[in-house]
Design goal:
alpha/beta; eight-stranded parallel β-barrel; about 15% strand
């Protein structure tokens, strides 16, 4: 049995071309679950000198969900910087370049000026795509260089030699343009490591030496076939793949990156194995978002890195709760309640602890001090033995009530809730604890004022969407003159968005200068508001004139159409920010919610650095 892997030294690795693809049918029979062969080659761990994390939340992660808006990308990029970018642990984040939105996301994140994460790109293996990266002045880009015969023969329709020549030509061009190529060895765990991958990697290292620039390699476990087991055979062994690239092809560990997928529940352990055997970076996404089963969860790597190195200052893990809340409230992603580190009940135990004595036995069941390290107190488990203090603790913890907003155990409604819980146990002989859903139902019944209603959510969404529209319109140069050009602009704008009921512009005295009515059926109704009509006493006029800020009114029933509407208004200003008038819009709630998805996709960023996306 071989204990240490034999290094190849300086020997030249030769491409092994073939008329037929090598599909490893003994490992990947397709009609059966894939096999894991062992060949008894064992290696000792040899960690990279610096273990780092790279992010692909906006590239691979975005392939598993609707596209992020510019504003959302900017916010998540800020989270990445705060989590581990400040220390350099999270070194880079990659972006698509193909749509106008993609490019604006790049601009916004670059404008942050962070040293880390660095903004890098991802392209297909074409010179047109490379030119796009060059034109956007990237100094590093990922390039899709698929390496398994499944891809080379069956997808690209090429021989190994043709594929290698195409990839090398693209890498050579990138280096000539001063761009570090990051070659993504797609489907590495079904590839011929010695027959194609290592000879290709060795040629890339030759290009690196000739140019004096790094050539990075991402080892992509596209199908999640990688295994971390000692003695497992190639091409499935993560240990063997990493060491072969370092020892045989001469790729420096700091230029090697592992990108995994979770098809077989091994994405985290495979990534950490790659770290331990010399790969400098692991590619990850927040909460493991990624196509199919997802990528390595970035938050898990942060915890694992600290566990391996003892470097507590490398990442600010307390931010994870904030990130999770953002994903749930802003992106409407329901994080599983038992999801490690951020799930609502991940550190809860059915053994239970009373609120008045949480510190007494917390360490028995809690993985570590989650309050200090994650900003997550131990959830209270509700039973008939919990007491009023436990009910109050549950309410305050789950509804995030702090300070003066916190509910006291002396609150009458808390007593009513607890009495109801005790009664259920007495009447039914129940032995299990109350679920989160059951407690939510009880609290909503006795304390409905603590919950945002669905109607409130609708109002908020409608207001936000309407605000995006009116802010866009208010920036139009045509409005400044309050004349025919302004009226024409209102007409054209209202035709773009037929759910607008009434669109109007006043001067600084409140006199109506022009208006647009989208539905002819209501035209007669609005004749009571002729040009020159005095709106000076209306709330929607007075507030923007006083503050210069956007104003959103509460929902009310229109006297002209009897529909539920929301009125949004803002000041129209000149180049020196002097107020010239007020622009108002009445939007039907029902109609705007039907268009919510479209409007959110096209909403302008609220960040000063973000360009107008509309």
């Amino acid at each position: 049995m071989s204990i240490l892997y034999n290094k190849g030294g300086d020997r030249i690795l030769t491409l092994q071309d073939s008329d037929k693809p090598q599909l490893y049918r003994e490992m990947f029979p397709y009609t059966s679950i894939c096999r894991t062969p062992f060949d008894s080659v064992l290696m000792a761990p040899c960690p990279a000198e610096q273990m780092r994390i790279t992010d692909t939340t906006f590239r691979d992660g975005q392939q598993a969900r609707p596209p992020y808006t510019v504003r959302q990308v900017a916010k998540i990029f800020d989270f990445l910087h705060r989590l581990g970018g400040k220390t350099g642990l999270i070194t880079a984040s990659e972006f698509f370049l193909y749509s106008a939105r993609d490019r604006k996301c790049v601009d916004v994140c670059r404008a942050r000026g962070y040293r880390f994460p660095r903004v890098t790109s991802w392209i297909r293996a074409t010179k047109d795509d490379l030119k796009l990266a060059h034109d956007m002045e990237f100094d590093e880009t990922g390039m899709l260089t698929s390496v398994s015969d499944y891809h080379i023969y069956m997808k690209l329709g090429k021989t190994r030699q043709q594929a290698m020549d195409m990839y090398l030509d693209l890498a050579r061009q990138a280096l000539e343009w001063g761009i570090i190529p990051r070659c993504h060895f797609e489907d590495i765990t079904r590839a011929d490591i010695y027959g194609f991958c290592l000879p290709f990697a060795q040629r890339l290292m030759e290009l690196s030496q000739q140019s004096g620039m790094p050539v990075k390699i991402r080892l992509c476990d596209t199908m999640g076939y990688g295994v971390p087991y000692p003695g497992a055979a190639l091409p499935r062994s993560v240990q063997r793949i990493v060491r072969a690239f370092i020892d045989e092809a001469g790729v420096p560990g700091k230029w090697l990156e592992w990108h995994g997928h979770n098809d077989f529940h091994k994405v985290l352990v495979n990534g950490v194995t790659a770290w331990l055997y010399g790969a400098g970076s692991i590619n990850a996404t927040l909460f493991g978002f990624g196509e199919r089963t997802g990528n390595t969860p970035l938050e898990a790597l942060l915890i694992e890195y600290i566990s391996l190195t003892g470097d507590d200052a490398a990442a600010d893990t307390t931010i994870l709760a904030e990130v999770a809340k953002y994903f749930e409230t802003e992106l409407h992603y329901q994080i599983p309640t038992n999801y490690p580190f951020v799930g609502r009940d991940f550190n809860a135990t059915s053994a239970g602890v009373h609120a008045d004595g949480l510190v007494k036995n917390e360490e028995i069941y809690n993985i570590f001090d989650t309050e200090t390290l994650l900003g997550r107190p131990v959830p209270i488990i509700i039973t008939d033995k919990t007491g009023r203090a436990g009910v109050a603790y549950w309410i305050n913890s789950n509804l995030h009530l702090e300070g003066k907003q916190a509910i006291s155990k002396k609150h009458p409604a808390v007593g009513q809730i607890y009495d109801s819980i005790v009664a259920i146990y007495e009447e039914t002989g129940r032995t299990t604890h109350f679920s989160h859903e059951e407690m939510t139902e009880l609290v909503q019944r006795f304390m409905p004022e603590l919950y945002v209603t669905e109607f409130d959510r609708m109002k908020t969404l409608a207001g936000e969407l309407a605000a995006n529209l009116i802010l866009r319109l208010a920036r139009s140069d045509e409005l400044a003159g309050l004349d025919k050009r302004a009226c024409a602009r209102l007409d054209s704008f209202s035709k773009e968005y037929p759910f607008i009921q009434y669109l109007y512009l006043t001067d600084t005295t409140g006199a109506l200068k022009c208006a647009a009515i989208t539905d002819p059926a209501y035209k007669k109704n609005y004749e009571a508001l002729p040009i020159g009509y005095d709106f000076s006493q209306r709330e929607w006029f007075k507030v923007p004139m006083k503050t210069g800020e956007l104003h959103i009114m509460d929902v009310y029933q229109s006297q002209f159409t009897s529909k539920l509407i929301i009125t949004v208004s803002c000041a129209v200003t000149d180049a020196k920010d002097n107020i010239l008038g007020v622009l108002g819009v009445d939007i039907q709630i029902e109609q705007v919610l039907k268009q919510a998805s479209l409007l959110k996709d096209n909403a302008p960023s609220q960040d000063d650095a973000a360009p107008d996306t509309l």
